Amino acid sequence: MNTKVNIAGVVLDNPVTVGSGTFGSGAEYSEFVDLSRLGAVTTKGVANVPWPGNPTPRVAEVYGGMLNAIGLQNPGIDVFIKRDIPFLKKYDTKIIVNVCGKSTQDYVEVVERLADQPVDLLEINISCPNVKEGGIAFGQNPKAAEAITREVKAHAKQPVIMKLSPNVTDIKEMAKAVEAAGADAVSLINTLTGMKINVKTGKFALANKTGGLSGPAVHPVAVRMVYETANAIKLPIIGMGGIMNTEDAIEMILAGATAVSVGTANFTNPRITEEIVSGIEDYMREFGVEDINELIGAVKEA
Question: What are the residue numbers of the active site?
């Protein structure tokens, strides 16, 4: 039985990784999960300098999930290289580094610093606000997405995954733009923009007013967007968005995802990723699937 999948020439032992920002860089979950059982570990976003993140409160529970406005708090690339990469290298798993920035130069600096590091893939978070364009996210404008992809590819030594925002009119247009610019893979979806107001106090639940909605509420939207994207481009897809169990993961693969990323579920069950890896193996045995790749995009008409 083969569970290996190929993302831009990088072979993962199985199709399960974690959502950036929900797993740190692996250390805090290593007492619950054998990181070597995961196809890859996707790190929290890494910037060229430390980011303090947004003011608190910055997390709120909502129906079917949560809102977060952490603001990509991270210690910066220097600490990441010194502390996090050596930790992850102790495990038999692939390393996907999520890269964030507020300008094209920010992204390029991080990508260049990682060029000679033992990491496998770069996931470029283009949902960051582009400070030079009045704060609109790089990933909400096809031309901006294409430009940042082209620039990152010009400096990257590892394959580049562009992480697409769902907060757009047409996700297919964004996917085609990054494919045209040379992206090696895409991941989707990032969080949907949401808001919560405390009716007792009349105040916003988050200091930032808005936050990213994640969790099971977004899963059907994510499945639809993965399916549309898989039928619009030829690149491998890492599907994410409200994957809470094995069934959700298989659904995403059937829609066209080569790999899946588990995010919010880590907060309710820190062992969920390993359970999904085992669950996929059980599913393959139950349905007589010899190769996980047979399932990718294999959804049939009702």
Answer: 128
